[in-house]
What we know:
single chain; alpha/beta; TIM Barrel; 2 domains; 8-stranded mixed sheet
Amino acid sequence: MTDFDLIVRGATIVDGSGSPGYLADLAVAGGQIAAITTLGEDVRAPVEIDARGRHLMPGFIDIHSHSDFVLADPQHGEILRCFLEQGITTVVTGNCGFAPAPSSPEHQSDMESYTAFLRSPGAPTGWPTFGAYLDQLDSQGVALNVVPLAAHGAMRIANMGFAGSKPTEDQLKRMVRAADEAMDAGAFGISAGLAYAPGMYATTAEVTAIAARSGRQGGLFTCHSRGLSETLVDAVSEVVQITRDAGVRGQFSHLSALGEANWPRIGEAINVLENARRSGVDVATDCQAYVAGNTTLTAVFPPWSLEGGVHALVARLNDSRSRARIRSEVLHGVPTWPLVSGNWTDNMIASLGWDGIWLLQVSAPEFHQFEGGSLLDMAEARGVDPFDALCDLIQAGGGESMMLVVGSAGSLKSDAPLRDILALPFTSLETDAIITGDGVPNRGAIGAFPRMLGHFVRDEGLLSLPQAVHQMTGLAADRLGLTGAGRIRHGAAADLVIVDMDKVADTTDYRNPRSTPEGITDVIVNGVPVVGAHASGPQHAGRVYRRTAAA
């Protein structure tokens, strides 16, 4: 006779704190961890899992994902099942300045073009406030836990569209009010995407003013920096400055460097972060488990060409003089700092080449055949110049195309720069995955966390298992201020992963990114088995965390 709902027996528990593992049984009641001890055979539960010879870990926390719109799709459980299958039980949304709300009628079309590459076919749009968006997720139910961030980019679009100018005093006040509304509704912080329109048009002072609203309520400020190439060190310094001046905890999103010529700058960037931490600035970072990451294809264009939004970009590509200017800058533009109006702080084509930009998702049917290949592959197949092939794709599909940037912290032959980032004790693991059910997936959506455990921990010994699990769970929870998750301890949410460390592996590769990982035998969300022999089909077992309640 027992009050327990689920028992895991005989596992080696790696609890997410960084401490060594230990043998114990674990019992769950009411969606929470109710006991960690040795349970006699007379103690029973409706669901019992024999985990002898395997490891029990907290559910993995993806501190940087882009599932905001997809979560509002009634079919999101199937679309995002790949996250659960790799052990992720909690996703942090709203990163890089992208979020679904607020949205204003005046700039609704701008918002829709801005987020087209993030949306699944059934994803709605048009929430007037951040609270309204969270309310919809609550009423609909979610397949895994959601920790929401608000986004500077969405606030700017709602008030200014894609204007490249500074906000007026009134516009800035409205953005501040939107930030306060989002934090009051339960956002865990505010993100910025300074490499993307419209975030790229914001001054450091503007971003600091918005970031400070997060600090006012104990939230986190996360930032995709302005530069990840020649300007990487300056861009890291800017994020540190914003973190310090806004009085917030800061997170430098997906530390990396575009192209081999810039990989040595990673060490310099790490020095900036470490020096800031020693001086008392609460700043950390996160990183993928790969040398490639996904983003919108429009990021390869110069900032001035994106002013006014995607529709304005397409119009410029249709104008011969504007197109010639864009071509010249794409082929020859050199990133510069400090930031001034119209400056490039990254030129992805110059850093990576046409063969370093792969197509993951395109909306125009006539280009579907090129998904999974590079821009160079597409150009050669069509018998045209790569720049013209790029423009043809944008003109046909607008802003809905997504690319994989290959060479962001190493090459397909060597991931040495990536290892330096992953080994940092203040690096959280992320997927940075955009998955909508269309196109070719980013392999991080399928295998990021198994890759860390199988490749980097078991096979390469880059990190100890306790430290790696901490960077996959407890560290992210600490950065977010999420006190009830990320560790195996009494009273915590029963988000759990059972792993066979002898077998765990990411089975994908860059050309074949769809195969299910091995060695993740059971996944439990709030006490409900969702992957493994005891899972009972699609579930809305997750919860939408709100900062005030979680803290």
